[in-house]
Each structure stands twice: as C-alpha cells, then as structure tokens.
C-alpha cells in the first residue's frame, strides 16, 4: 500500500546490534576466569572445555559482527558516524579475539603457570575482565545518548565511565610490570622457551584490557562530534 | 444543462471515492507514528483519527478546498463553456484516483495532493488552454512543496532541541518532564485552535474577530493543558523499568503528549487533504447549480461534510489495517521525538491549510522526522527512501496531468453538447 512507505524511512539502528555484539564479547572474555582457574589448578580437562567455549563464543561474536556490517549501507543517516560504528565494532571484535588468542596460546602448549605468579596472573585476568565489562557499560549508554540527542549531561556521564575504564587499564599495565618482574626472578629455573611464551601470555592478556580501552576511545570520538 | 444530474452524481461518487482513498491510505501516514511509538493503541488511533480528521476536514478544510476549486484555473477562459470545467474536474478526480490506485499497487510513495494538482493543471493547460492556468498560483503551490518539509524540519529540530535542553539532558528528566510537557500540550491546543479560528468558521455560524480568536485559542490551549496535566498525574512511574533504559518513565510522560499531537496531526491532515477530494466536487456543484462559472459563490457545507464522511468511511473500512501495518514498522520513534515531529508537521500543515495551500502531509512529516534526525535524535534514517519520497512529486505531476487529459477528452466526447471549439 502507498500508505506504508513512511515506515521505510526508518533504517535499523546499529545501536542494539552493537550492544549485543559487545555483550557476546564480554561473555567470551569472562570465560577466561574459569579457564585461568583450570590452568592454575592444572585441570587439563576443565581447561580444554573452557577453551572450546571461548572459541565458540568468539565465533558467535564474529557472526554478529558480520551481520551488523551488512546492515550498515552508506545511505543511512545516523547520529553517529558510520565509520565510528564500524571501528568500535572492529575494536570490540579484537577484544574477543584477544581472549581467544590467550586461551589458544596457553592451551595449545599445555602451559603451566609457576605457582609464585598464580595470584598476580589471576588478578590480571580479573582486571582485564573488569575493563571489558566497563567498556560494555559505556557502550550500553549509546541508546541513552541517542535518546538525549547527545545532551551534555549524558555525554559527561559517559565521559566519567570512560575515565574509569582508563583507570582500570592503567591497573592492568602495573599488574603486567609486577608479573614480568616475578617472571624475571624465575627465569633461571624455567625452560627458556617456556619463559618466552609466558612473557607472551602476560603481554597478550594485558592486550585485552588495552583493546577494551580502545573501544572506549572510539566511543569518545562519537561523543566529540 | 442536459446532463446536470449525471454530472452531480458522478462528481459526488468520484469525490466520495477520493475521500475514501484518503481515509484508507493517507491517514495511516499521519497516525502511524503515534501507533509505532505505542503512544496510542490501534483502537485509540482509529478513534482519534475518525474524530479529528472529521473535525479538521469540516472545520478547517474550506481554504484549501477553495484553492483547488477555483484558485488554480482562471475560469473566465471558459465562461462560454462551463461544461468544459465540469469535464475537467471530473477527469482530474478520476485521474488522481487511478494514479493513486496504480501507485499503491506498486508501493510508490505518491501523494494525493500532488496527483490532484497535477491533474487539474494538466487538463486545464491542454484541454482549455495554457493561459487558463494561474501559473503564479501553481508556482506558489509547487514552491510550498519544497518549503513545507523544510519548514517543518526546522520546527522539529528546534522543538527537539528545546526538549533536550529542558527535559532530557538535565539532572532530573522525570521532574522536568512533568514540569514542561504540559506547556507543549498547551502549544498543540493553542496553535490548532488559533489557525482554525483565524481563518473563520463562518460556515458553521461562528464569526470571531482576531482578538476574540486569540482569546478563544488561548482558552482552548489552557483546557488541553489541563486535560494533559490530569493524564500525566495518572501515569504510574515504575523505577524498575528504568534499569535497562533510563528514560522509560520519561517516555511515558511524552506518550501523553503524543496523544495530543496525534489529534493535531489528524486534524491537520483532514484540514488539508479533504480538499483533494471535494475541491473539484465543489467546483462542479457550483457550475451545475448556477449554470455559470461562479467565482464568488461560497462552499456548500454539505460538500465538506461529504468529504469528511468519506475519509472516516475509508478509515473504518480499510485505513485501520494500513495504520496497523505502518505502525508496526515504525518502532524506532519514541514518543519524545515522535511528538516533536508531529507537532512540527501538524503546525506546518494547519498553517498551510489556513493559507489555502494544498501540501503533502506525508512530505511535511518526513521533513519533520529528518529535522529530529539532524538533531541527533534518531538511530538511523534511510536517506534513499527519504529521497524517493521527496522526489515522487516530480513523476506524479505529469502522470496525473496526462491521465487527466485522457479522461477529459473521453468525457468531452461522451457528454459535450456546447458549441464546437
């Protein structure tokens, strides 16, 4: 009917799919906690199961990413820049990819975390998950941002959330330094190849928080426009 | 005239059919935003549409009707042959109806207003003579088709910005919504009443001076506001609903506002679009009754009534289904922006109705929605569809015109009894 063309002008907003993608990413990263627990308790079977779960969740996130990309034709007129949306999406996806890489690295080599590093590493993983959760909380503000037409109060609120995200990311930087120091102390006792890969695990794990922070930076760009 | 009764019967039938089509199709565009944002249920929307389309058509439809009836064609050119004008107006109605039927089958976004104006200009320019068209007036009308969406876009932009400043982007949106929403409700009542009264309600025996009109409009604004305040008081605020989305309760208050703007929208639509159906009928009736092309005779009330009834009939038989379908597809528009778009569009349309300019309600609404979008208030707008809607009149004008020319010569061939020209 000719009456129905009015509804055609409303495109599908990328906000909900973007938030759903981030939710999936966070659930993927969260699996690192039971995974790390299994690694530290030398529970090979549990570690394997968690690894599989992480791979599956990462794949699901990837599918959501592709779906959203297809739904964003350039003829859409949005309050947020299309490029920013796509970059936030890519960044979010990299977060899940980071979790998958860490789990893959550890599981693939059947790596064992030295007991003296266990507490610090567990703390680092927890803080990385915190960073992702914080990024998710910020992304969840997007619909409120649009509701208020990117009003000042709401922008400041999101700005506050992003400051917290930065702080969490800084925590993880410090935790990485501590961990590297602890590993350095152990270097002589461990096999050199294992040492090399442990450094890599520390770096990659910290990288997850780094990427979560970059999700936030992209969001900040959306606000600034 | 030999076929007087025929002419009257055909005119009434075609006019009623056009009005039916407007009710069946076009009303949906005016009402769907309210249904989509869940400010109204389908049943409420139909009730609102029926009452306010009727009121708009009957109370404020006279100005545009008179433009369609005698503003586009210079009737002095056909004084010796008034029958030609009858054929033309019948042909225009038929052409517009056929074109709309084709377009709705194909899902093309065409407007009733553009079809009928194109048809009248078409038959007049070809059937009577190029000089018989008031080109200046046609130019004004065509310009208004560009100006009206732009104007309602600007209005919507500023209305939404004010909502943002006063309510949404504050520390306590809920409190501010309760405080300021009644004023927007006042604006709805005031503007609609003012424009309607200023243009006169002589045909129902109400003749007020400008001062009296403003006073009555102000009073009607106050009354509307009062009803709104009561309705807002009765809204149940449930903080639990704000967990996921912090503006759920604020939107409920805007929902009340949107009931009023929906009424305004239906009123505005009725006031502007009824003319598309009954303008030509009015022209035919006055010629048949007087035997001459009377430029001065006033519009018979029963013709307005015919149009108003036709619209409501269309709504009741078919339009409610279209409203439901369109409403279901518009989910992105929450009441806080739906109202801004509707208030802007309704104000623009009633002003056009008061000035006697036939414009497209849908285009005006699309312009308003874009205005809210530019204020960063809507998740995503499909610019390609917007462009198609906005450009549709470029095709509709010649299509309506050509069809009208065909029907004109057909009718002339069947009924013409006057001197050979």
Computed CA radius of gyration of chain A, to the nearest angstrom: 20 Å
Please tally the β strands of chain A and state the result.
1
According to DSSP, the number of beta strands of chain B is 1
Q: Which fold does the CATH topology of chain A refer to?
A: Methane Monooxygenase Hydroxylase, Chain G, domain 1
**N-C termini distance of chain B:** 18 Å
- Average pLDDT of chain A works out at 92
Number of separate structural domains of chain B: 1
Give the assembly state of these chains: heterodimer
Unreliably modeled segments of chain A: none
What is the mean predicted local confidence, pLDDT of chain B? Answer: 88
Main interface by residue count: A-B, 31 and 58 residues
The geometry of chain A reads as: elongated
The secondary-structure class of chain B comes to: mainly alpha
CATH C-level of chain A: Mainly Alpha
Q: How would you describe this structure to a colleague?
A:
The complex is a heterodimer of chains A (225) and B (421). Chain A has helices at residues 15-30, 32-40, 44-70, 82-108, 115-139, 142-147, 152-186, 192-224; one strand at 76-77. Chain A has 225 residues and is mostly helical. Chain B is an all-alpha fold and 421 residues long. Chain B is built from 13 helices and one strand, in the order ααααααααααααβα. The model of chain B has no long low-confidence stretch (mean pLDDT 88). The A-B interface holds A 1-15, 75-79, 143-144, 146-154 and B 24-29, 32-33, 36, 100, 103-104, 107-110, 160-161, 164-165, 168-171, 245-247, 319, 322-323, 325-326, 329-334, 336, 362, 365-366, 369-370, 373, 375-386, 389. Strand 1 (76-77) of chain A pairs antiparallel with strand 1 (381-382) of chain B.
């Amino acid at each position: 009917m000719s009456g129905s063309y009015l509804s055609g002008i409303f495109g599908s907003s990328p906000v909900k799919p973007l938030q759903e993608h981030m939710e999936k990413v966070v659930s993927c990263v969260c699996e690192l906690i039971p995974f790390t627990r299994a690694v530290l308790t030398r529970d090979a079977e549990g570690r394997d199961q968690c690894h599989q779960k992480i791979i599956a969740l990462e794949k699901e996130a990837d599918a959501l990413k592709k779906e959203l990309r297809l739904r964003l034709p350039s003829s859409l007129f949005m309050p947020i820049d299309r490029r920013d949306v796509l970059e936030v999406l890519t960044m979010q996806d990299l977060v899940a990819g980071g979790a998958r890489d860490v789990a893959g690295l550890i599981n693939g080599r059947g790596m064992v975390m030295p007991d003296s590093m266990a507490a610090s590493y567990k703390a680092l993983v927890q803080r990385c998950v915190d960073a992702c959760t914080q990024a998710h909380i910020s992304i969840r503000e997007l619909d409120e941002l649009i509701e208020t037409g990117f009003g000042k109060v709401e922008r400041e609120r999101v700005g506050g959330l992003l400051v917290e995200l930065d702080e969490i990311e800084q925590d993880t930087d410090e935790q990485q330094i501590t961990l590297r120091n602890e590993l350095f102390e152990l270097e002589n006792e461990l096999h050199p190849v294992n040492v090399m890969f442990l450094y890599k695990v520390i770096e990659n794990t910290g990288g997850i928080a780094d990427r979560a922070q970059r999700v936030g930076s992209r969001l900040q760009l959306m606000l600034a426009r | 005239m030999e076929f007087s009764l025929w002419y009257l019967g055909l005119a009434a039938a075609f006019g009623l059919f056009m009005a039916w089509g407007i009710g069946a199709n076009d009303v949906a565009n005016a009402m769907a935003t309210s249904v989509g944002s869940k400010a109204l249920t389908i049943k409420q929307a139909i009730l609102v549409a029926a009452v306010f389309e009727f009121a708009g058509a009957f109370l404020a439809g006279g100005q545009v009707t008179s433009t369609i009836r005698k503003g586009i064609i210079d009737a002095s050119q056909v004084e010796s042959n008034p029958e030609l004008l009858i054929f033309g107006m019948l042909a225009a109605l038929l052409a517009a109806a056929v074109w709309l039927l084709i377009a709705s089958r194909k899902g093309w976004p065409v407007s009733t207003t553009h079809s009928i104006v194109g048809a009248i200009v078409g038959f007049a320019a070809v059937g009577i003579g190029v000089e018989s068209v008031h080109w200046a007036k046609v130019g004004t009308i065509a310009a208004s088709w560009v100006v009206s969406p732009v104007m309602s876009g600007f209005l919507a932009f500023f209305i939404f910005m004010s909502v943002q400043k006063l309510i949404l982007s504050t520390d306590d949106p809920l409190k501010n919504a309760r405080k300021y929403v009644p004023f927007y409700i006042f604006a709805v009542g005031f503007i609609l009443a003012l424009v309607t009264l200023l243009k006169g309600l002589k045909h129902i025996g109400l003749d007020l001076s400008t001062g009296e009109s403003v006073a009555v409009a102000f009073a009607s604004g106050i009354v509307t506001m009062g009803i709104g305040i009561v309705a807002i008081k009765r809204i149940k605020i449930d903080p639990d609903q704000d967990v996921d989305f912090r503006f759920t309760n604020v939107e409920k208050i805007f929902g009340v506002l949107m009931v009023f703007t929906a009424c305004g929208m239906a009123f505005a639509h009725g006031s502007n679009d009824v003319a598309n159906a009954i303008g030509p009928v009015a022209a035919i009736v006055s010629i048949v009754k007087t035997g001459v092309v009377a430029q001065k005779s006033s519009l018979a009330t029963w013709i307005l009534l015919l149009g108003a009834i036709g619209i409501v009939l269309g709504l009741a038989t078919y339009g409610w289904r279209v409203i439901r379908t369109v409403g279901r597809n518009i989910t992105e528009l929450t009441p806080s922006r739906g109202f801004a778009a509707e208030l802007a569009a309704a104000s623009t349309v009633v002003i056009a109705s008061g000035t006697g300019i036939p414009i497209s309600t849908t285009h005006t609404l699309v312009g308003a929605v874009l205005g809210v979008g530019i204020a960063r208030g809507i998740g995503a707008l499909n610019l390609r569809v917007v462009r198609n809607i906005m450009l549709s009149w470029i095709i509709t004008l010649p299509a309506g015109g050509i069809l009208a020319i065909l029907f004109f010569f057909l009718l002339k061939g069947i009924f013409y009894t006057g001197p050979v020209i």
